[in-house]
# Entry
Amino acid sequence: MRTRDENKEAAIREKALKMIVKEGFDGFSMQKLARAAGVSPATIYIYYKNREDLLNSLFNEIHKVFIANALENFSPGLSLEKGLWLQWKNRLGFILANPAHFFFLEQFRHSPLINHKDISNSEFKENMKGFCINAIKRGELARMEPEIFWAVAYGPFYSLVKFHLQKKSMMGNDFKITDHKLKQVLKMVLTALKP
Amino acid sequence: MRTRDENKEAAIREKALKMIVKEGFDGFSMQKLARAAGVSPATIYIYYKNREDLLNSLFNEIHKVFIANALENFSPGLSLEKGLWLQWKNRLGFILANPAHFFFLEQFRHSPLINHKDISNSEFKENMKGFCINAIKRGELARMEPEIFWAVAYGPFYSLVKFHLQKKSMMGNDFKITDHKLKQVLKMVLTALKP
DNA sequence: TTTGTAAGTGAACGAACGTTCATTTATCTT
DNA sequence: AAGATAAATGAACGTTCGTTCACTTACAAA
# Structure
């Protein structure tokens, strides 16, 4: 039998991502994608059941890569400060290196497409759970619901990231994240989380 | 001359909002909208130049209403705690009363449609600026960049809101905001913002 | 070298897309 | 009551949509 041309699938996924980021889900079509990737429309249906399947597959893969990157060098035994800093840096590094991937994830997450899915990564959950328990034991973290922890520990970080990625952020400024600013916010967040 | 039927435009806007929230921008079409609103496709073009104009108009109006609601009873002279609490409560009240409006705003904001626009409300900016200056003078707030203030003061709040609106939030729980939890997070945020 | 089979194709399907247009309808001014 | 005019319409425009299908191509096993 004929062997699959891996370049074809890679081209399909890459062009799909770019098209969605530039034109949104309504500007994205299978025929345009085929043209952009240099394949026949029918070829796409060898790799994916249909349009929705392609979009879901794209989201799943990118989300997995994102989480894996966030957990790089992470261990639940790290101190709250070191662990949080590492995760922030990991995430920021990925986002700045792959802004299109992040735009895609955010666009997907905030669209109705997300309703047909169940996003959750048990490896990630286990890590975070252990991380919190250890921090509480060590007296670095007050006892609180996981969602509240997440909101305080990651909400400010992601707000900063979004300002960074916008041309004009809120006040008309051109805000850019620096290590110094990130450290400044980390200190504030750690103060908030302290028992 | 014949007079405009205001019910028609209201129906168009309402059905457009619902369709977009349920089916996304790619599930939304002018012909489906006309059918849902009980008008002719051509009628929509009396009120809006084209599809993009309709979407922009919808976003502008809803965003304006949202900001106006957030500023209700607000004054830059309020203490940091009172002012922040009021804004959180205003926003939460609106979002819970009009979840579809919030979904629409978020979906639009995270789509490429937002690139063609310039979101900024000078009345809101003036209010926030005065609010911060006063809080700094009073010693309730450390001096910091506006984006950092926003990230710490509103990032956690919006994270909570998003958990509340999801069926299964992160850890598989069914998280719901209560006044008590909101106050708990407010205390944490105020601690972080203190000089 | 033949053969089986999955990969890959271009053309085509009916349906739906955004938008326009000739026409009718309702209301204001006279 | 007549005339003017903008609102409103249904049908239609050409285009593009997601998907399928009959067919060709390339490669592994025989």
